[in-house]
Design a protein that fits this description.
Layout: H1 2-31, H2 36-47, H3 50-82, H4 84-113, E1 124-131, H5 143-152, E2 156-169, E3 176-183, H6 187-191, E4 197-198, E5 213-216, H7 218-225, E6 235-238, E7 241-248, E8 262-265, E9 282-287, H8 293-310, H9 312-315, E10 318-324, H10 325-330, H11 333-365, H12 367-375, H13 380-414, H14 430-455, H15 460-465, H16 477-509, E11 519-524, H17 534-549, E12 554-560, E13 571-576, E14 586-593, H18 597-601, E15 605-608, E16 618-625, H19 626-632, E17 642-646, E18 654-661, E19 676-680, E20 689-694, H20 702-712, E21 718-723, H21 724-731, H22 733-767, H23 769-777, H24 782-811, H25 827-853, H26 857-863
Parallel strand pairs: 3-8, 5-7, 14-19, 16-18
Antiparallel strand pairs: 1-9, 1-10, 2-3, 2-9, 4-7, 5-8, 6-7, 11-20, 11-21, 12-20, 13-14, 13-17, 15-18, 16-19, 17-18
Length: 864
């Protein structure tokens, strides 16, 4: 390392110096008549121990270094006191730049870099099954297959799984919705987590017919039991059953998600869990130590191949996919965070360029002071050290203020917990503090090194000769280069923000193909156990729909497996009239809807009829959209054809096409309509989405809807009640947040660039007072002087715009996947940004230009 090399060289110099003094002493002793041996021995005695002398000399060097540092620090503090406005401007600028940078770094550190909080979390995988022929998008796993994987896979320490139920807790006066995670055996053992109170499930409890037990979350424990340790052993009523509480999980444990209130065993040996095509588990596994992802994936592929030979239907038609559990949790938010990090890094660079320009001006004003220090014997290294110490002191103060900004931003990230994974883990810690300190040091070097080198480069005579600030100045190309750099980076940020804003505007102009206004959505608690009696489940849901339709102010009511306009793509393959053509696959988005769905969503039916009541999934009514009819069924000839799902399991749907609906953007407003098959069945799952179209504002009907459902189903809870429009807005929350933050950073960057332009012109105006006075005395017009200064500012801004547009073209390629309806090189956005920058630059340049043109020639020349 560099510091070790410097210490080694210093010791070598000390050894040479000691050897020199010993040699001189030996020569003196020989001159006094001693022999060589006696002279050497006496010299060593007189000189003393070599190591003791070296240590004394080191202490002398260290003492001088400490004294120099103390002097520089005192000088820096004195400089900050003498120039409070300058110091405050620098500190606030750095606080903004370093604070924003540290805040986004803390999010990346917690969400992207930091391993999961589970012990050895990098060994945890998410495992899913997939139809080898891509006929069915279902990736859930059957209980028997999960147990086979766990038994046969040699690279895994264990494999488990989970699924969810939204149930009602009935111990209070009103039903309360609770989210229950039903977990396969080995769930907590694989995660290597234990309850903070109580115990894990026993083997008996994980088998069919075992005791009904539950482990509750920390939040549920606080909410229902106020943190009372005696909650362990008590019972809670969930639906029709009473569960004994056997444990309480730690506060940080929020897996599979932060909404889970309790965990209960799901028995893999249950009678209804023995079919290999009955799939409901999301599967996780822990690799053995030393096993790689590639080895684990190959092992599972081999296991599934063996199962395919043993159970040709359906296992021969399935493949296995794996991914690190952390990647599955973080998802696509990684790209958004890196985009924000790049943006705040550009913002920090702009702040550095801004401060460097201020320091150049400040150092130029201190040339006389620096010259005096040179005349008194100070070395250039000492003067540069003092100037850098001053900048470092300002940077450290800005870094401390930036940590306060980052702390506030971290709290803001916590409010985004619903859309940002692992948001609760974003905190200020030693890594963020070290990063902020590193930013301060790097910023000090970036901002201060060049001004310090430039301010100390001139000879003593020329510096002392320049005693007046009103001399005819040079063109100061460095200041203008810094201004252009700031404008370049600001243009890059502004173009990126402009593209995202244009994209959101284009999405807002899209016609969704349905009417989301005046639609109230909600869900009602249920249990997957109800699917064992589908007829009763359908009757229960239809009874609630009939009750809702009779409410005053309700125009229509329906259920759907997924909300319109909210991405929930579930592509399946179909065959028409029992025929399957391998050369022309019929792929379509599959959606389950009830009677009244098209009225509730106001999706126009172009031909035929809509859904009729059905109590089973066999021989149901089917409605297709126009894209499906045109692509696969010859347009209007679609009605009457039979559609049947091509699937590896026996739960495929079959129905007759009764109508053709208009194309709706069911998968999101930013996604074009795709061929869609609407299967008419009111109970796609025990807790479907309810859509209630109202005559007035949807939330004004919320109490009446809740009361009617309570009358019909007093043991069930209503949850997730909100307007459909709010769901659509929430589906773009990531895009909206990304756009707003990037726009904020871009406007801040433009402001900093304009401040830099204003400061540079003001500084040059002061330097060139004598030149301006001479020009005015010789007959120049004031408007010519003002125009000259104004054009200087616009020229610097123009150069920055050209460079910024080139940089933006390269950077915005990373934005292309986040844009809708707008090209990454959209001419309107680029030209708009250039015009905006030039306008703002003209405004920023106007005041210094006017001030320079108002110089009084007589007064200036008299001062000279």
């Amino acid at each position: 390392m560099a510091w070790m090399s410097r210490w080694r060289k210093r010791d070598e110099r000390l050894d040479r110096e000691i050897a020199f003094h010993l040699a001189e002493q030996m020569e003196a002793n020989v001159a006094r008549g001693m022999s060589q041996e006696e002279a050497r021995r006496q010299a060593l005695v007189d000189f003393g121990g070599r190591e003791q002398v070296k240590q004394s000399m080191r202490e002398v060097h260290l003492s001088s270094l400490v004294e120099a540092v103390k002097f520089n620090v005192k000088s820096a503090l004195r400089f900050m006191r003498r120039s409070p406005s300058f110091s405050l401007a620098v500190i606030l600028t750095l606080a903004l730049g370093i604070g924003a940078n540290s805040a986004v770094f803390s999010a990346i550190d917690a969400v992207v870099w930091r391993p999961l909080r589970f012990p050895d979390g990098d060994r945890l995988l998410k495992i899913s099954q997939h139809d080898a022929q891509n006929r069915d998008a279902n990736s859930f796993v059957a209980p028997v297959r999960l147990e086979d994987w766990n038994r046969m896979a040699s690279t895994f320490q264990g494999i488990s799984g989970y699924y969810f139920d939204d149930l009602s807790e009935l111990s209070g006066p009103l039903p309360e919705k609770v989210t229950q995670a039903l977990v396969a055996p080995r769930f907590l053992e694989i995660l290597e987590v234990s309850p903070m109170l109580g115990r894990n499930f026993t083997a008996q409890e994980e088998h069919w017919g075992g005791p009904d037990v539950v482990i509750i979350s920390f939040s549920y424990w606080q909410r229902k039991f106020h943190g009372d340790p005696s909650a362990v052993g008590q019972k809670v009523q969930i639906g029709k059953y009473y569960y004994a509480i056997v444990g309480v999980m730690p506060e940080w444990f929020q897996f599979p998600n932060r909404d889970v209130d309790m965990w209960t065993p799901s028995a893999p040996d249950a009678p209804f869990a023995q079919r290999r095509d009955s799939t409901w588990y999301t599967v996780i596994g822990r690799m053995k130590p030393g096993v790689t992802l590639k080895q684990a994936t190959a092992d599972l592929a081999t296991v599934q191949s063996r199962l395919g030979k043993q159970f040709p239907k359906p296992d021969a038609e399935l493949t296995v996919q794996t991914e690190p559990l952390k990647d599955a949790i973080v998802g696509a938010v990684r790209n958004s965070l890196w985009l924000l990090y790049g943006s705040v890094s550009l913002l920090l660079l702009i702040a550095c360029a801004n401060i460097a320009a201020l320091l150049l001006a400040r150092t130029a004003e201190r040339e006389h002071e620096i010259s005096v220090r040179f005349s008194l014997g100070a070395s250039r290294r000492a003067v540069i050290g003092q100037l850098l110490t001053e900048v470092l002191a300002l940077a450290l103060a800005g870094s401390l203020a930036g940590l306060a900004v980052a702390a506030s931003a971290a709290q803001g990230f916590h409010l985004l917990a619903k859309t940002l994974p692992r948001a609760e883990e974003i905190t200020l810690n030693w890594r963020v503090a070290v990063y902020s300190l590193a930013c301060a040091v790097v910023t000090a070097l970036l901002c201060g090194l060049f001004p310090a080198m430039r301010g100390t480069r001139r000879g003593l005579a020329s510096s002392l000769a320049q005693g007046s600030r009103t001399q005819v100045s040079t063109r100061n190309p460095v200041q203008w280069a810094l201004v252009s750099i700031q404008v370049t980076l600001a243009v890059t940020l502004l173009v990126s923000a402009g593209l995202l804003v244009r994209s959101m505007e284009e999405i807002g102009r899209v016609s969704p193909g349905f009417d989301p206004s005046h639609v109230l959505t909600m869900q009602v608690s249920g249990s997957w156990g109800e699917t064992s009696d589908m007829k009763t489940l359908v009757q229960r849901i239809d009874r609630m729909l009939d009750g809702l339709r009779t409410l005053p102010g309700v125009e229509a009511a329906a259920t759907s497996g997924a909300l319109p306009g909210v991405a929930d793509k579930y592509q399946q393959e179909f065959k028409i009239d029992g025929k399957l053509d391998p050369s022309r696959r019929i792929l379509a988005d599959s959606r389950w809807v009830s009677v009244g769905y098209f009225d509730a969503a106001r999706i126009p039916v172009m031909l035929g009829t809509t859904c009729r009541q059905s109590a089973t999934t066999k021989d149901i009514d089917v409605v297709v959209n126009r894209s499906f009819a045109n692509l696969y069924l010859g347009g209007t000839a679609a009605i009457g054809h039979t559609l049947e799902q091509v699937s590896y399991n026996d739960f495929s749907i079959k129905g007759i096409v009764q109508g053709i609906a208009g194309d709706a953007r069911e998968e999101g407003l930013n996604e074009p309509p795709v061929p869609t098959v609407y299967s008419c069945f009111s109970a796609p799952d025990p807790f479907p989405n309810y859509l209630v179209r109202t005559r007035g504002e949807p939330m004004e009907m919320a109490d009446a809807v809740r009361q009617r459902i309570h009358e019909l189903e007093p043991g069930r809870s209503v949850y997730a009640m909100m307007p459909l429009q709010a769901h659509l807005e929430e589906s773009f929350s990531d895009n909206r947040l990304r756009t707003r933050l990037l726009s904020l950073f871009a406007l801040t960057a433009v402001s900093l660039a304009c401040i830099g332009l204003y400061g540079t012109l003001s500084y040059l105006g002061r330097l060139r007072q004598r030149e301006v006075g001479v020009r005015l005395a010789l007959g120049a017009l004031r408007r010519q002087i003002m125009t000259r200064f104004l054009l200087q500012g616009l020229r610097a801004a123009g150069v920055g715009c050209v460079a910024g547009l080139g940089l933006a073209v390269g950077c915005t390629r990373f934005l292309s996947s986040m844009l809708y309806g707008v090209s990454a090189v959209d001419p309107a956005t680029y030209s708009g940004v250039v015009l905006f920058i030039l306008l703002v630059a003209a405004i920023a340049s106007l005041a210094p230009a006017v001030r320079a043109a108002r110089v009084e020639p007589v007064k200036v020349l008299r001062e000279e």
